[in-house]
Amino acid sequence: MLKRSFILGLGLLLLLVLITGCGKSATTSKEPGGEPAGAPSKEAYKIGAVVDISGPGSSLGEPENNTLQMLVDELNAKGGIDGHPVELTILDNKSNETEAVLAAKKLIEQNVLAIIGCSQSGTSLAMVDTITKSQVPMVSMAASAKIVTTAAGEQQPWVFKTAQSDIIVANKIAKYLVGKGIKDVAFLSMNNAFGDSGLLNFEKAAADNGINILIKQKFEATDTDMTAQLTKVKASKAKATVVWAIPPSASIVTKNFRSLGINMPLIHTHGIGNQTFIDLAGADANGVIAPMGKLVVAEQLPDTDAQKQVLLDYLSDYQAKYTKRPSTFGGHGYDAFQLTVKAIEQAGPDRAKIREALEQITGYAGISGVFNLSAKDHNGLGDDSMVMVEIKDGKWTYLSN
Amino acid sequence: MGIESQYIQYLISGFTLGSIYALIALALVVTFNITGVFNLAIGEFVTIGALTAVSLREAGCPILFAYILAVMLAGLVGALMERTTIHPARKASVLTLIIITIGVSIALRGAALLIWKTHPYTLPSFVNTASINLLGAVIIPQSLFVLGLAVVAVGFLLVFFDFTFFGKAVRAAMMNRTAAQLVGINPGRLSMFAFTFGSIIAALSGIFITPITAATYDMGFTLGLKGFVAAILGGVTNVTGAIIGGLLLGVIEAFAAGTLSTGLKDAIAMIVMIIVLLTRPTGILGDR
Amino acid sequence: MASRKIWLWLSGAAVIVLFLPLLIKNSFLLGIFIVIGLYSIVSQGLGLLMGYAGQVSFGQAAFYGLGAYTAAILATRYQTPPLLCLLAAPFLPALVALIIGRPILRLREHYLVLATLGIGILVFALFKEFSDLTGGPSGLTGIPYLAIGHLVFDSDRDYFFLVWCVLGLVLLGMANLTRSPVGRVFRAIHSSEKAAEAVGISTASLKLQAFVVSAFLAGIAGALYSFWVTFISPSPFGFTTSVEFALMVVVGGLGTLWGPVLGSGIIVGLDKFLQWAVPEVLPTVGGEFEIIFFGVIFVIIMLFRPKGLLLPEKSIVAVAAKTEDR
Question: In chain B, which residue's Cα lies nearest the Cα of C289?
Fold first, then answer.
């Protein structure tokens, strides 16, 4: 009995010590490697980031993590913000909502000026209450409009986001269909928050543009075969198919689509915006059309495009450091970081002022689009942030805006 | 596409899916029957087989060589798992063993994440022919290979158990461990054989299915789960049952997705499994 | 009535709990303790089922989720006052457990594991599917704060007290239960179901009671979770969480009062500890190593302390070394 109690007591004590220990150390996570140039005596500006680096959201989180680290190193090499070095703490929430909440709390305890995060809508939403209560500005890299909107329809005062809202994607697809004279479509989506948001927004866009969704089907992210759902599409009178998914399921749907010999335009979304989609779908990817952030076709944009230079620089910097091309998700991380830095430059180390400064950023040409933030719009992106692309010969080709 | 063609298509997709599940169920059933342990980490061996093959190919290994090496590696890991985690725990309770296999699956998944990250990978189809048309429905050639593998594996096992000395020894051990020990059969070696064999089958199925689906570090989880359901359906005491169970599960899922809704297909698969567990726990082909 | 020893322990623990938030203003740590508290409530219930009644459930996250969703839906869609939601929420999972419990609990070992696993996945799929009610995969936002009269629980400190008070009540209840005649009967079932039945104990109804209680407790914890994060989605209520609950009970010590609490602390704490320790020891690696260590540590615990850390049982490695057959 004594031995048991002893173990119990020891265990609890050890636990407390460990947790307290790791709770206090502010330098636990990945710090920027760069040495700050200029006056080292200036106090560091702390920024926090909660990213879905591992777990199901990692295909979004990994490029974002890479981008954030690259940018903070570049910034510190230039001397930081007004000579203040920037200390970026990146935490992995493992794509888990409870972890996201705890990570946010940890960063707030470390007195960060703002929090960038998360990569997915679910994990971002989980943090909203925590950062609002502590009044810390949050810039999410996820897409759902719910992140920045309260239940009453107002903008969440402390929350911003850099990914294009799904309504923009939906509108672009709808306008493309109208342009091609197509009125009846089939709609397939992933059975998760991403797909659901797509469904909701596409229904709206379709209604606004006189398009009929004849058939709606869903599939799980882990499904290995979608011919059952596609069979129904083939049997329907739809003249085009819209798929709202990310790889690998987006690629599997595409392969199944082609092998069933379904003869109609196949339209995807920004969810397929990386090389992986093409690699997995192989030759079946040719002919796929999608609205996309401008990053994938940066080189093909007209020189007059406001974003072209920023995009090309990002491409070359990222490839120099990580050898592969960045994805649009990395771009969301890029924009979140730059917007935060801009706001801090304007407002100094004051959370409330940073929040105000964020609302005042206009005309900022980023990776995801040209941002025009305001008190009524905490996303700041419009239809011009995306362009239509087509996959030809295994490469992204710019179609139109 | 007429309604009959639709149904035939569902049947075919069901068979495609189902043969994937069948292979995994087979690996599970073999292991379970020999050792009495449900290897919850079986899905991770599918991952190991698939992703190792991908890496070897990317490193320039000729295809066949890459596949054989990948399978051998998986077998080795399986044997290692048995020796280090199962063998020392062979007298433990069912719950303990289950948790051990869960621990191993977590560790293996972490290792896969570490080595291959989250990137999905693919392998080329075995033959580069177009899809086959059957009665208005379409068959992907690779799925025939998957089904073929399942059939070959079962055939091999049946021959093994009925016609070879080692196989008969294994069957004896399955029926009565003590008696088998008395006549000199070593249960420890059998256990290692079971795990090695199970991981080889799992790895092979990983390689065969990757041209159809993609391979990611966490593919093993859902597949392993479906493999379990399939094994229950068919009867965990029966090798042929594993195949039947897998095909049945695949068809149920395909029809549920096609006629009802995708979200419900997992729910329906679970309901079917629970009904089977409650009414005929030894499965469709198992002995009462 | 619980023995003096238990009262002593509980008072000591209560003092620590009361003083903790005064020492720790750190919202991160409070958050961790809230999570440990919530998980402890669930695993106490599971501990009753697994440790005392000797059954297994790999589907507790379903009950946790049912409690969370019931509370959230009542609060948001039906404008029910949060306190009422909290009180009503656990009854749904308890009811579900009552209905499915009797047939399910007739199963044994592997089959019971799979059946409870199946239930967990089934309920999870339903959470995603009925999006009109549950918000589907995108989840439910806008859950109000819990309020008892004029006291609004909107700070981590208040919530910490709330959760640990509930846990304290649960522990008291458990202590009473296990020292009562009912508790002895449970242990009899655990040791040998056949022997228990031979002396006329209705094992089926007692197992069912344990199952229902475990579902009820999980439901309470779920409701508390809803009102803390004020946003829920299906993802915290999946298979991984169910497995974690089972691990908490087993690691802490099957059939002990404090085992589940220790187990919860270890699982949550271990995760955070690895988050801190791994980069210290191996600075260049990422979060993947934590996952590997997590799995390896469980295997090691199971090999050397199969009944959990609180019970100094001979390790199964030692047992296996002897040649006796089971």
Answer: B110
